[in-house]
Here is the input.
Amino acid sequence: MTAAIAASAVFAAVPAPASAASATSTLQAPTETATPAAPPIPDDPNDPARAMEYWLDGAGIRQAWNVTRGKGVKIAVIDTGIGKPPVIFDGAVADGTDVSGVGSADGRTPVGVRDPNHGSWVASLAAGRGNPDGTGMIGVAPEAQLLSVSLGFPGSASTKPFVDQVVEAMKWAVDHDADVINLSFTTNTLDWDRSWDEAFLYAFEHDVVVIVAAGNRGSGTSMIGAPATIPGVLTVGGVDQTGVASRGASTQGITIGISAPSESLLGVSADGTLRSWDGTSGAAPIVAGAAALVRAAHPDLDAANVINRLIRTAQPVPDMARTPDPLYGYGLLDAEAAVTASIPRVSSNPMGDLKEWIRVYRRADAPEQPVPEQPATPVAVPPLPPVERSVEAASPLLPTEESLRYGTLPLLALTVPGILVALGVTAAARRIRSERGRRTPTP
Here is the structure.
């Protein structure tokens, strides 16, 4: 317990950003600071379970509870299903469904043979209730409601394609008024099935904040994969108790937006057992709970501005090479600052625009747009010159019309008179010689 409290102090000692208002160029009027709410729910920091939750102080969650605990916000947990342990989820799960085909209709029966309690661990971090006396594990947004969507991960008994399950789960969550959707899984591939385009666009167009885990090196994920690569989602990287990027319980990638604890986490299993576990699967619901606190404190903000408050108030880490950083994103989660700071509004999602991405990168597959027909107008065309008759090829030994006209006839015109003149001269010469022969010479 002492070690856990000490780790909390180290995690909280990361310096706060110099200016929380360093927003993008699409700034608008700043939002108002949230006003304090009623006294927080019972909370005993000396309780062994609470003392192990070092992120409650390290990430400013207890301080944020002075303003809100997430009341009125719904967090959809699309995972293996939220179980029914005692106390921790009493009154927390508002609705649920199963998209795997092998779970119960309410989504509360754990699905899968590997980590069937995964969904319960995730949900307890996001919005676990804790005991009425202030003891036992408690979630980040303990007054938010949960939607349980049981999903059959690869290797489960589900016969439905995983990509189709995700599409169905996303649409069901949106249609049942989810304000935040948590996805604590990865596909280990950068690209995603095209059917996810429509599903995630459906969430964004209905003003839902989508929180996604970056993945873990310890599980074989060397780089982030979908859905963490989808523009518009808030991807969460993991850090240890000292605020340093986790080597085994996180991964890296340029789409990481924020970091949260991913080592020595707690989770309540479906049977009520308290478990210790690691991974960005746990870092994501911590941020999802913080998003619920922001939405409850600022109900006028859209999803883009909820995400913007989370990343703009994140605490920078000395090891960050740039902002955003491929290990830390914009820094470590600071729930108190996200809830209370005065942050200029933005007009677009700082994590990207999926609709624009689809327009650019799916355009080769898009159907061709019809070309509008222009009304035909008669145009006067001048008559063309007469077509010259083509001359059929003939033997080069035979005279042609043109050779007769331009060669033979002029030659005859010159030759015949010459011949006649020559004949006349010859005849005259003969006559003269004849006359000379008849003359008699004198003595």
